[in-house]
Amino acid sequence: LASWMLTRLMETGIVDRAICVASTSNPDRLFEFAEFTNVESLWTAARSSYYPVEISSCLRTAAESHLRYAVIGLPCVLKGIRRAQRTMPKLKRTISVMLGLVCGQQRSKFFAEYLVRRAGLSMDSVCRVSFREKRKGQSAYRSHFAAWTDEDVPPRFVERSDGYDFAWGQGYFKQDACNYCDDVFAELADVVFMDAWLPGFHDDPRGTNIVTARSALCRDLLESGIQSGVLRMTPIGIRDVIRSQEGCLRL
C-alpha cells in the first residue's frame, strides 16, 4: 500500500521524485536510501529492510533541487528531516510529503550477517538479501529470510523457526538508540503504514496493511483509490490499530 501511494504521488504530479530504501549488490552495504525518478523502478524497493541506512546524500540533492520529493522512512529518519526543515526552509519546500512506517526496533548490519551465516553463506558471497520472503498458502507470519549469491541461482533460506524469530524476540543486534525511542507510529509523518497483525488478517499470505492518514492530501489519495476500485479498504477502530502493534508498544 505504501508503494501504491508513492506511485500515485508521482503519477498525479504531486511529487517529481521518491526517496526510499532499496537493495544493493554491495555486501558491505546491502541497503541504502535511493532516489527514484519513475514508478516502474519504484516497485523494486517494495520490501522490508531491517538494516541501518542513512539519508544525507539524498537530502543534500533534495536541498539543492527545484523538484518536489516524497520520502518514506522510519520514525527516527522522519524526525531528523522535520528538524532539518526547521533550519533549511528550502528542504521544507522540496520535501512535500513524508510517509512513515511503524517501527518497534531497528537492527545493526550484524543482524543481516547473522542470518546470512545461518543460511550457510559468507557475507562476501552475497549479492542480495530479503528479510521477508513469502510463500503462497502460508500465513503472513511465516515469512522467512533469503540470501542470493547470484541472481540466476536459487536463494538460501532461513526459516523463522531456525533462529530468526529467536534472535528478533531476544533483541539481538538491536541498536541501542531504539531503547530510548517512544515513536512507534511515525508521529511526524503525513501518513503511516503498518502490518495488520490482527485475527482474521494475518493468515493471508499476501499480507494486509493498516494505514492512518494525517493529511487531507493522503486521505484523498486513498479515497480516490477506493472509489476507482483499485484499493479494497474498510474502516478500523483506533483500539484495533493499537492492538495490531502491541508488540512494538510493549517494547
Can you put this structure into words, describing what you see?
The protein has ten helices and nine strands. The radius of gyration is 18 Å and the shape is globular. The chain has helices at residues 2-11, 39-42, 56-63, 75-87, 89-94, 109-118, 160-169, 216-227, 238-244, 246-250; strands spanning 17-26, 29-36, 69-73, 95-101, 128-133, 144-148, 156-158, 191-195, 209-213. The mean pLDDT is 93. The chain is α/β, with parallel strands linked by helices and 251 residues long. Helix content is 34%, strand content 22%. A hairpin with a 2-residue loop joins strand 1 (17-26) and strand 2. The chain has a six-stranded mixed β-sheet with strand order 2-1-3-4-8-9. Strands 5-6-7 form a three-stranded antiparallel β-sheet.
Short description:
The chain is of the alpha/beta class and 251 residues long.
Layout of secondary structure:
Blueprint: H1 2-11, E1 17-26, E2 29-36, H2 39-42, H3 56-63, E3 69-73, H4 75-87, H5 89-94, E4 95-101, H6 109-118, E5 128-133, E6 144-148, E7 156-158, H7 160-169, E8 191-195, E9 209-213, H8 216-227, H9 238-244, H10 246-250
Parallel strand pairs: 1-3, 3-4, 4-8
Antiparallel strand pairs: 1-2, 5-6, 6-7, 8-9
